[in-house]
């Protein structure tokens, strides 16, 4: 009895192997590369000059305790804040910095 069951299983396996030969198999297509830009080398844009100055002025105003920056991800908010921070660090306007 076991021998007959084994023979049936073997036959089923052979059929599955044959069926599988007709199926297209391969690796998924590779996605195109995404061009990345480093924020370590800041390139100022004319469109950002006003925001840069606005942020600097807000930080220099003693009436401001909290300054926020909002916008879609990837638009350069953090990079702009870091650049303003570098300028303020060089100007020695603040005794402490947190960023």
TrEMBL record:
Highest taxon of the lineage? Eukaryota
Annotated Gene3D superfamilies: P-loop containing nucleotide triphosphate hydrolases
Is-annotated flag, keyword Disulfide bond? no
Under the GO molecular function aspect, what terms does this record hold?
A: ADP binding
Q: Which residues form a coiled coil?
A: none
NB-ARC domain span = 50-93
- Which InterPro entries does this chain map to? NB-ARC, P-loop_NTPase, Plant_NBS-LRR
What are the UniProt keywords, alphabetically? Answer: Plant defense
UniProt-recorded name of the protein: Putative CC-NBS-LRR resistance protein
């Amino acid at each position: 009895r076991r021998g007959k069951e084994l023979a049936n299983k073997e036959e089923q396996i052979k059929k599955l192997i044959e069926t599988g030969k007709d199926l297209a198999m391969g690796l998924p297509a590779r996605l195109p590369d995404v061009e990345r830009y480093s924020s370590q080398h800041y390139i100022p844009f004319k469109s950002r000059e006003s925001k840069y100055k606005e942020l600097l002025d807000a930080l220099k105003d003693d009436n401001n305790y909290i300054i926020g920056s909002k916008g879609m991800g990837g638009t350069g908010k953090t990079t702009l804040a870091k650049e303003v921070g570098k300028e303020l660090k060089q100007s020695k306007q603040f005794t402490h910095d947190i960023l």
